[in-house]
């Protein structure tokens, strides 16, 4: 389901569950892999990959969601929501550079997980990224809306969450959702090379993760009621 390897200072986390749909078992497997990565010391970075040629992650395991008793391998349905959201919160504040190599479709929760990485590379010739909850008759939970708003420009945010736009690689690059396009056969290597260049930033894990908390965590800097002019003029009040 999850394979973890290390190349130099770069951990590669490969999702190999077909369409990589999210259920409690999948959440726990990825969380366990992150435990191993975080237990390391020194320079490091994380690249998340998929073994599929078509899917990065196709979102929620809808068969399991609709009938968990018929799909017991998906795990305890009652704890999924809280555990999945907590995992996404862990990933967005992970104390080392993280890069998602989006090789194909990333829908719903799959798109959300890619956005929780610091950087996204995407296959340029095939695949869509989409928050398709509206198409499925579902509301996007407020924490997920906040994630999308933090990560995306306002016009891109609205088209993504409200109009369920499907973004191709070139469109996603132009919109600022992803940072680089690659061919399928070059995607993994390009992601690893970029991650290797960023790995020294994680030499001080507390510093790297701590600044992410300032950006995305409780009382996040960009969410404060005071504007930047007031904060600059009264910097001592806002020192951490």
Largest sheet, if any? 6 strands, mixed
- Given this structure, which CATH class of the largest domain is correct? Alpha Beta
Task: Supply the number of structural domains.
Answer: 2
Taken as a percent bin, the fraction of beta residues is: 15-25%
The outline comes out as globular
Number of helices: 10
Overview of the structural elements:
The chain is of the alpha/beta class. It has 2 domains: 2-199, 2-enoyl-CoA Hydratase, Chain A, domain 1; 204-238, no CATH class. It contains 10 helices and 9 strands. The protein has helices spanning 24-38, 62-66, 80-92, 109-115, 142-151, 154-161, 169-175, 184-198, 205-216, 228-233; strands at 2-7, 10-15, 45-50, 55-57, 98-102, 105-107, 119-123, 129-130, 180-182. The strands form 2 sheets. A 6-stranded mixed beta sheet has the order 1-2-3-5-7-9, sandwiched between helices. A 3-stranded parallel beta sheet has the order 4-6-8. β2, α1 (24-38) and β3 (45-50) form a beta-alpha-beta unit. The longest helix is centred in the N-terminal third of the chain and has 15 residues, at 24-38. The protein starts with a strand and ends in a 7-residue tail after the last helix.
Q: How are the SSEs placed, and which strands pair?
A:
Elements: E1 2-7, E2 10-15, H1 24-38, E3 45-50, E4 55-57, H2 62-66, H3 80-92, E5 98-102, E6 105-107, H4 109-115, E7 119-123, E8 129-130, H5 142-151, H6 154-161, H7 169-175, E9 180-182, H8 184-198, H9 205-216, H10 228-233
Parallel strand pairs: 2-3, 3-5, 4-6, 5-7, 6-8, 7-9
Antiparallel strand pairs: 1-2
Helix pairs in contact: 1-3, 5-6
């Amino acid at each position: 389901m999850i394979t973890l390897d290390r190349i130099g200072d770069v951990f590669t986390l490969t999702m190999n569950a077909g369409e990589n749909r999210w259920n409690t078992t999948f959440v726990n497997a990825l969380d366990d892999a992150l435990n191993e990565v975080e237990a390391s010391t020194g320079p490091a970075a994380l690249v998340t990959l998929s073994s599929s040629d078509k899917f990065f992650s196709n979102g929620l395991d809808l068969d399991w969601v609709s009938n968990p008793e018929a799909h017991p391998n998906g795990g305890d349905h009652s704890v999924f929501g809280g555990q999945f959201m907590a995992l996404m919160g862990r990933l967005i504040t992970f104390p080392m550079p993280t890069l998602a190599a989006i090789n194909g479709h990333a829908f719903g929760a799959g798109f959300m997980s890619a956005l929780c990485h610091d950087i996204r590379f995407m296959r340029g010739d095939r695949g869509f990224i989409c928050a398709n909850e509206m198409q499925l008759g579902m509301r996007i939970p407020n924490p997920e809306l906040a994630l999308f708003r933090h990560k995306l420009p306002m016009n891109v945010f609205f088209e993504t969450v409200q109009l369920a736009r499907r973004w191709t690689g070139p469109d996603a690059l132009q919109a600022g959702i992803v940072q680089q396009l690659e061919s399928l056969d070059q995607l993994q290597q390009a992601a690893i090379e970029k991650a290797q260049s960023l790995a020294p930033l994680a030499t001080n894990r507390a510093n790297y993760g701590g600044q992410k908390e300032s950006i995305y965590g409780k009382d996040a800097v960009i969410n404060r009621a005071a504007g930047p002019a007031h904060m600059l003029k009264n910097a001592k009040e806002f020192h951490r």
